[in-house]
UniProtKB/TrEMBL annotation:
Belongs to the TonB-dependent receptor family. Residues 460-953 form the TonB-dependent receptor-like beta-barrel domain. GO terms for cellular component: cell outer membrane. This is TonB-dependent receptor. It comes from Duganella vulcania. Keywords: Cell outer membrane, Membrane, Receptor, Signal, TonB box.
Length: 986
């Protein structure tokens, strides 16, 4: 083996010495034909494109990325939205903004995010105990590049089966000398315009960012500081069946009170095109319209010091801070269906169906629920790190890196992290939903709120908290062997602790908290409901119930607490939590890899390595036992809790992960790559954390719910094959084809186990219940059953009548007795019992049209797995979430004064969940979605520039459905977001 040619120079200005994922050098490429001659220095978009290609070309394995156009100028305002431009990467949006990423069909929990090569903690109260990193917490101004490693490498930390994403920040030694800039933006989010006047935020909000970097004249000292503040007022309006559908039921099934009447039975004449005897059908459970006003303030900052005491030793100390504060005000209108045999419905043909129209008639007025929420959360991330890179001698480099990082999320409101005040008018008669439009149309022609005014009903105040801490130390080195090989080695230790707590204060006064006269009509404001859904088909239907009622949360909360005479019942519990779970993972690792250049007929570079890891898991969980089941309302059976206990569980596992990466220079401008290896993805924290958690309310028809994790879960292990062909036909242009296949084992399958817990007895099916059925009540008419028990057995064991509710039914409690049936819980748990294959292909083109300034980026990703959700199967199923095809097309123009990007991103339909809003086994699909974003920049001079950006310019809406496309679960309308700004470089 001889040295075939000189080592390749790294083109990136932000060299990978700043990243713990150092890119091994390769041999220098010969000039691309036709590119010889005077060198032209490019800047802006074209420089970013060229640096991105160099990152891809000079890396081991298959790597993609995005490089900042200039210091403090990343291509997108949100990092997730930048990542979606990369082939194989899709994003999940929240409130119209990129939040989490899916790579090659593997969801957010199976993609590892690093900051400068360091594993970052993450917390998210909307996804408590998940591992997926929320990119909306990080501003883009201080980021110099994103590196997406799609294949495994021995020196890469584990956790990313889909990809390992390294977020690289700028450091002063990357750009010697003094550089600084300041930027300001005005943001206009049109989604804020489609909200009730009482909750909408400011029409225009500010963003300010600045960056300063300087090095000493002798190059020994460097300091950089970046900071940004962003305020955004926005909203979204959503409609659908958030709690899913009842069922599915078999057309031939006879289940009293839940299924459609059989042919010839009373009520069957009201069914049009009744589902066939062998068909599965589902019945709507509820219908909901809501509007949400969201205000966000995001603060980011990073301070970096670098010191080079001698030429060959560079030390770096950095501190990163981010804070994301979100305030949400939500108002909603909802109704619940009782699945009565008096329903009228029409159905499509098919083996799995949901109704086109569905209506119910009630013997007594039902409630129209008017719900309001007013809560706020704060997420704070902090990281302090130290890095030392030492060139000991020619051919030997050593590096040490350590950091302590935290992420913490909690309530930022006196009303807890999430809450709801339910108010109701007991005035609903015939209730119908029409699903033949994009917007489901709710009709309540007989509703009379003047005769039955709105009054306070049930409520709940949640207080969630999560903190994650990572302490990590890594030491690595590289040793030149002979002249064409390099030995890379390293050891590491990572200590990760994740703690989550939760408490709930709930009032189950769904029939009315006090008397209606306690709540003056002036507390509730009427708004035009259709105006909030004007982008959705059907919003102008004359049958749509046209009024959405809103109210001041704090005012109604205070009025209710005063009327009830109990302030603590209408505030969250900030004391000892109901649930407290801590999971700790300690991982020690070591790796060894050998990189070599081979003097064959065509130049070949190989990297062969192995990584060994040992992980110890410790789980401590508080459990809250239940002592009784109490029937308090039509369908609700709240549990009575008392006492506390803790469970402790330990487990461990070891993984040996080989990696082979090979690339061959077919020509000076063409590469062929192959990669084989194994990677792992750890289970979510809530899947690992022990401790049994009971749902606070059981249901008359479906029983109770519970969940328990499994600390002994092993990580998913994936055996990967990747192939890639890349043609770099000029400095800024590329055509590539990639194929990948992943064989995943030890997938944690979610299973539902039916069991009784804590010897809890339910009054449903007991002696009082049977007596009510014997008197003529049906199982479907739970109001009749309650009235009979409360009216005839008041004062008997377990029965206490307290009065008459607003809907004229008796109010009171019926407690399960020891002679009553045991309550059956559907308990969710996890086990390593699933395997899956994922394969796909990526096509990627990047082309600049000569010196015209015009360019094009386009890619398409195809992803396939034979393991898909079977809509005709009523049992709990395992299927890969987030699996979808995706495509991007980006048009570019740039000259000395102007830079323009027009980007279209598309993601096909994908399975988002395998349980619905009521935690039943049911699919949730997200419909295909396409969005257009535009950015325009104008350089007034070399220091001053202006920017105009538009996000979601096509005003796309989002939708999710269930087992059938017609079974709308939710449809969301937001709106475009516009930004105009200026940036000055000093």
């Amino acid at each position: 083996m001889q040295k075939p040619f000189q080592r390749r120079l790294m083109y990136l200005a932000v060299a990978s010495a700043c990243s713990a994922l150092a890119m091994p050098g390769h041999a220098q490429q010969a000039p691309v034909p036709g590119t010889e001659g005077p060198q032209v220095i490019v800047t802006g978009i074209r420089a970013s494109m060229q640096s991105t290609l160099n990152l891809k070309r000079n890396s081991d394995g298959i790597v993609d990325g995005i490089v900042a156009e200039d210091m403090g100028k990343f291509p997108d305002t949100n990092l997730a939205e930048s990542l979606q431009r990369i082939s194989g990467v899709s994003i999940d949006r929240s409130n119209g903004e990129g939040q989490k990423v899916t790579v090659r069909g593997l969801g957010p929990d199976f993609n590892l995010v690093l900051l400068n090569g360091r594993q970052m903690p993450t917390t998210d109260l909307s996804d408590l105990s998940g591992r997926s990193f929320d990119f909306s917490n990080l501003a883009s101004e201080s980021i110099s590049q994103l590196q997406v490693y799609k294949t495994g490498r021995a020196d890469s930390p584990t956790g990313g089966i889909g990809a390992t994403i390294n977020v690289v920040t700028g450091r002063p030694f990357d750009n010697p000398g003094m550089h600084s800039s300041i930027g300001v933006k005005a943001v206009k989010d049109t989604s804020n315009d489609h909200l009730p006047s009482g909750v909408k935020g400011d029409s225009v909000t500010p963003e300010v960012s600045g960056i300063y970097s300087n090095t000493s004249a002798d190059g020994r000292f460097g300091v950089s500081l970046s900071a940004s503040f962003q305020s955004r007022d926005s909203g979204f309006n959503r409609a659908g069946l958030f709690n899913g559908y009842q069922g599915p039921y078999l057309g031939s099934a006879v289940i009293d009170g839940q299924t459609l009447p059989q042919p010839g039975q009373p009520g069957s004449q009201n069914i049009t095109n009744r589902p066939a005897q062998d068909a599965l059908y589902s019945i709507p459970q509820n219908m909901n319209y809501n509007v949400a006003a969201v205000q966000r303030q995001r603060t980011n900052g990073q301070l970096t010091f670098q010191f080079r005491p001698v030429k060959d030793l560079t030390t770096t100390v950095d501190y990163t801070y981010s804070e994301n504060k979100i305030q949400t005000k939500r108002n909603e209108l909802s109704v619940w269906f009782a699945q009565t045999p008096t329903s009228t419905s029409s159905w499509p043909s098919g083996h799995v169906v949901s109704p086109l129209t569905y209506s119910e008639v009630y013997p007594t007025p039902q409630d129209i629920s008017v719900v309001g929420s007013d809560f706020a959360t704060k997420t704070k991330n902090q990281s302090i790190g130290f890095n030392a890179a030492w060139k000991v001698r020619p051919g030997l480099k050593l590096e040490f890196d350590a950091h302590h990082s935290t992420a913490e999320s909690g309530a930022d409101s006196p009303f807890g992290s999430e809450n709801a005040l339910s108010n109701a008018s007991f005035s609903r008669g015939t209730t119908k939903v029409d699903f033949t439009h994009e917007l489901p149309i709710l009709s309540m022609p007989a509703a009379n709120l003047a005769a039955a005014p709105i009054q306070a009903a049930g409520s709940w105040f949640h207080n969630g908290y999560e903190k994650s801490v990572i302490k990590q130390a890594q030491a690595k080195g590289s040793l030149q062997l002979m002249e064409a090989s390099e030995l890379n080695f390293g050891v590491g230790y990572t200590d990760t602790t994740n703690r989550s707590t939760f408490s709930n204060v709930q009032n189950n006064t769904w029939g009315g908290a006090t008397k209606a006269s306690d709540y003056p009509a002036s507390l509730y404001q009427a708004n035009s409901l259709p105006s909030f859904f004007n982008k959705l088909g059907g919003a102008n239907s004359p049958d749509l119930f046209a009024t959405l009622y809103t109210f001041d949360f704090a005012k109604v909360r205070q009025v209710t607490a005063n009327a009830v005479g109990n302030q603590a019942a209408y505030l969250p519990n900030f004391g000892v939590p109901d649930t407290d779970r801590t999971l700790q993972e300690k991982t020690t690792s070591a790796y060894l890899s050998l990189s070599s250049d081979w003097d064959l007929k065509i130049p070949v570079h190989t990297s062969v390595g192995v990584r060994v890891e040992r992980t110890q898991v410790s789980s401590v969980a508080q459990v809250l036992p239940a002592s009784a089941v109490v029937w308090v309302a039509q369908n609700e059976l709240p549990l009575t809790f008392g006492g506390q206990a803790f469970s402790n569980t330990d487990a461990s596992y070891t993984n040996v992960l080989p990696a082979l990466n090979l690339d061959a220079d077919l020509r000076s401008d063409m590469k062929l790559r192959a990669s084989l290896g194994a990677t792992i993805g750890r289970a979510r924290y809530d899947q690992l954390q022990g401790g049994l958690t009971l749902g606070t309310i059981a249901n008359v028809f479906t029983g109770g719910s519970a969940s328990v994790g499994n600390p002994a879960l092993k990580p998913v292990k994936s055996k990967n094959l990747d192939l890639s062909w890349e043609w770099y036909y000029n400095k800024q242009s590329l055509m590539s084809l990639a194929f990948f296949r992943k064989q995943l084992d030890n997938y944690a399958g979610q299973t539902l186990v039916s069991q009784s817990l804590y010897d809890l007895h339910t009054p449903i099916g007991g002696a009082y219940y049977k007596a009510a059925l014997g008197s003529g009540c049906t199982a479907a008419d739970t109001n009749c059953i309650r009235d009979y028990i409360l009216g005839n057995f008041d004062g008997q064991p377990g029965v206490k009548k307290t009065g008459v509710k607003g809907d004229k039914h008796l109010d009171g409690t019926i407690t399960g007795l020891s002679t009553d049936p045991l309550l059956v819980f559907q308990t969710t748990t996890y086990a390593n019992q699933k395997s899956a294959n994922v394969s796909g292909a990526e096509v990627n083109v990047q082309h600049m049209f000569g010196e015209s300034g015009f360019g094009l980026q386009a890619n398409y990703t195809y992803v396939h797995s034979p393991l898909k959700y079977n809509n005709a199967d009523v049992n709990d199923q395992f299927a890969i979430l987030g699996l979808s095809n995706s495509a991007n097309v980006v048009g570019i123009f740039e000259n000395k004064e102007w830079s323009v990007r027009v980007a279209y991103n598309w993601r096909d339909e994908f399975l988002a969940a395998t349980v619905d809003g009521s935690n039943r086994a049911a699919p949730v699909y997200t419909d295909a979605y396409g969005q257009v974003d535009v950015s325009v920049g104008y350089n007034y001079n070399k220091n001053l520039s202006f920017q105009l950006e538009a996000i979601n310019l096509n005003d796309a809406t989002q939708r999710q459905h269930g087992r059938t496309f017609a079974s709308t679960l939710n449809v969301t309308q937001a709106g475009p977001r516009y930004m105009i700004g200026a940036r000055y470089k000093f």
